[in-house]
Every structure is written in structure tokens, then in C-alpha cells.
Design a protein that fits this description.
The chain is mainly alpha-helical and about 375 residues long. It is built from 17 helices and two strands.
Length: about 375
């Protein structure tokens, strides 16, 4: 070899003279540019191979430069599923929910009612005096973000929420779920969502936190309950439609997300919109109004709230003026504007057009 290579090694051993290429012997990664930089030409490699074959019986240096390896071209990664895939996922989820055993269904429904109520608790505390500092509009937006906690816990934590389960209608439309299964799920989930919401009412009342801010949180609780029980039937119904249209879209978008952050953002934006706009959610109202009914009897409430306001908050006005019309509106919003709409767009079977062939075109 004309020049000594930095990676060429020779020594005498018991077995005889040994020579080898350090790069090849230790399997060190090399590339064409590196070999050219150290002067490892094709002619030199031929010479090295002959020397090694003579000394150790085999050559360890390739005769030609290795072909450059192109960087692998990765396929584009979608951060979310497209709507047709979400529709298929929705039907699959409907099948699983419809087949959930009663003990699990009941416990998951209680958890969902409690989670939504916890979001309502956070909303009440955060907004009890916020409008004084940032105005009504921004206060509504911040309240909506706070309330999103409830559905985030339901989706990521895993629970059965009546308003979200209105999307089971897609499974029924696709003939994967029976009408009896849908109604059975709705009935038990709705009932035990109420139990979960009342559980949080009980815990929050005895925590005494509603007395915070010199009764400011309590005033907010009662004002929310009074506003909800004073709605007309039609107002509550149409606000219920708009609410669950957005809630079910939040569930739809969460199904599209590939990671937790995507799901959380997908939930927060529609939920913040419905809360800021003042739409009505039946399960949230299972916390808001009973909480107002309970605290209105306290001495603190008697001293801060006008008697006429307190008298309007009753179980009768809750059920007649709010819960019944809001629940019906929620069903319409989720079933018609999300489940039926997207099933029609992406899953509805297409019937082939009939082609009539005229065998006697000249007649």
C-alpha cells in the first residue's frame, strides 16, 4: 500500500501475520462521503482485500463504495381521523355501549353525572364575581372553559353520559343496535346521571364551600337556578337542542383525535361555546337547580336574596320549566343534528340507479 491508512492494522500473532481493516472488522458504519474523505478509493480497497485474503483467508473491505441510502420517506401522519372514519367509529362505539352490562353501565353513569356536576361546581366558583373584572362576555367564555372539565373527565376518564349517548342513534340507523337497546341505555344512564349529580350536590353542600367569598358563590348558585327555572317551555326546549348539538359535536371531534391533547381541545371549544351562549344541558341542570333548591333555605340566602327569587326555585319549576323540555331538546339536538346528519352523509346505503334500456328505440 502506497500510503498508511489510519484504519489499517497489522500485527504478528501466534497464528501468523494478521492484517485487517478496522472499519470492517468492528462493523463501524461508513458512507461514501466518509470513504472519499479518507482517500479510500476503489484501487486501494482492492489492494487491501488482497492483503487480508492472503493473511486471514478472507477480505473484509467491499470492492465498491456502498450505495448511498436514501432517507426513508414517511407517510403523512394525520392528527385526526376524517369524518367518514369517525362515523364508522361511532357505530362501533354504539355497539359496545349498547352491550355494556348493567352493573358497569350504572356505575359509569353515576360517574358521568358526578363529572358533569364537578364541571358545574368549577364553573360556579370561577364565575361568581368574574364579570366585575373582565366583563360579561369574557366571563362567559372563561366559565365555558372551566365547565369543559366535566366532559373531559367523561371522555378521557371513561363514563356514560346521557347527552353523549344520544349518538347511539347512529348505531340504530346503521342496524347494528336495536331500538330497545338504545332506549334501555338512555333510561338507565339518564337515571343514574341524576344520582351522580345529586351525589355532588350533597358533597358540595356539606363542604361549605358555597359560602365562600362572603356568600358570593351562593348568590351565583341561586341566580343560576333562578334563571333556569324561569325559562318558558319553548325557550328551554330550543336551548336544549342547541346545547346537545354542540355537546355531541364535541364527542364527535374527541373521537377524531389521536392523542389526549387533541381530544381535550376538541372538547373544550364546542363546550365553551354552548356554555358562553347560555344553552341548556339536562345533566348539568341536575346539579345546578337542586343545588339552588338546597342552599336557598340557608340563613345566608335569606339575608342576601330577594324572597321572590327564592320562591321561584322549586322542584316543580325545575321539572316542568326546565328538565323535561331541556331533555327533549337535548335528544333532538344529538339525534337529528349529529347522529342522523352524519349517518346520512357517510353511512347511509346508496341504492344503485335503475337503468332502463329501450329495446325498440325507433318505435
Amino acid at each position: 500500500m502506497a500510503e498508511k491508512c489510519a484504519f489499517w492494522n497489522e500485527y504478528d500473532s501466534v497464528a501468523g501475520h494478521i492484517c485487517y481493516c478496522e472499519l470492517a472488522a468492528f462493523n463501524r458504519p461508513v458512507n461514501p462521503n466518509f470513504l472519499q474523505a479518507i482517500g479510500c478509493t476503489g484501487e486501494k480497497r482492492v489492494e487491501c482485500m488482497k492483503s487480508m485474503e492472503y493473511a486471514v483467508g478472507k477480505g473484509l473491505v467491499p470492492e465498491e463504495l456502498p450505495a448511498p441510502v436514501a432517507a426513508p420517506v414517511s407517510a403523512p401522519v394525520l392528527s385526526c381521523d376524517p369524518p367518514p372514519e369517525i362515523a364508522k367509529t361511532l357505530v362501533g362505539v354504539a355497539q359496545k355501549k349498547a352491550a355494556t352490562a348493567a352493573p358497569s353501565l350504572i356505575m359509569l353513569a353515576i360517574l358521568a353525572g358526578a363529572y358533569i356536576a364537578l364541571g358545574a361546581v368549577l364553573f360556579t366558583i370561577v364565575t361568581n364575581d368574574l364579570a366585575l373584572y373582565i366583563g360579561d362576555g369574557l366571563s362567559r367564555l372563561v366559565g365555558g372553559i372551566s365547565f369543559s372539565l366535566g366532559l373531559i373527565l367523561v371522555i378521557l376518564g371513561g363514563a356514560e353520559l346521557f347527552t353523549g349517548n344520544n349518538l347511539l342513534a347512529a348505531g340504530y340507523l346503521d342496524r347494528k343496535v336495536t331500538g330497545k337497546q338504545v332506549l334501555n341505555n338512555w333510561f338507565w344512564v339518564y337515571l343514574f346521571n341524576f344520582v351522580g349529580a345529586l351525589l355532588v350536590v350533597f358533597l358540595f353542600y356539606y363542604s361549605g364551600i358555597w359560602k365562600a367569598n362572603d356568600g358570593g358563590v351562593m348568590v351565583r348558585v341561586i341566580n343560576i337556578a333562578a334563571a333556569k327555572t324561569s325559562l318558558t317551555w319553548s325557550e328551554a326546549f330550543f336551548r336544549g337542542i342547541l346545547c346537545n348539538w354542540l355537546v355531541c359535536l364535541a364527542v364527535w371531534i374527541a373521537m377524531a383525535g389521536k392523542d389526549a391533547i387533541s381530544k381535550i381541545l376538541g372538547i373544550m371549544i364546542p363546550i365553551s361555546a354552548f356554555v358562553a351562549a347560555g344553552f341548556e344541558h339536562s345533566i348539568a341542570n341536575m346539579y345546578f337547580v337542586p343545588m339552588g333548591i338546597i342552599v336557598k333555605g340557608s340563613e345566608l340566602a335569606q339575608g342576601l336574596i330577594a324572597p321572590a327569587v327564592l320562591q321561584g326555585i322549586t322542584w316543580q319549576t325545575f321539572f316542568i320549566n326546565n328538565l323535561i323540555p331541556v331533555t327533549l331538546g337535548n335528544i333532538v339536538g344529538g339525534v337529528v343534528f349529529v347522529a342522523f346528519a352524519y349517518w346520512t352523509c357517510y353511512l347511509r346505503p346508496t341504492t344503485p340507479k335503475k337503468v332502463i334500456i329501450d329495446l325498440n328505440p325507433h318505435q
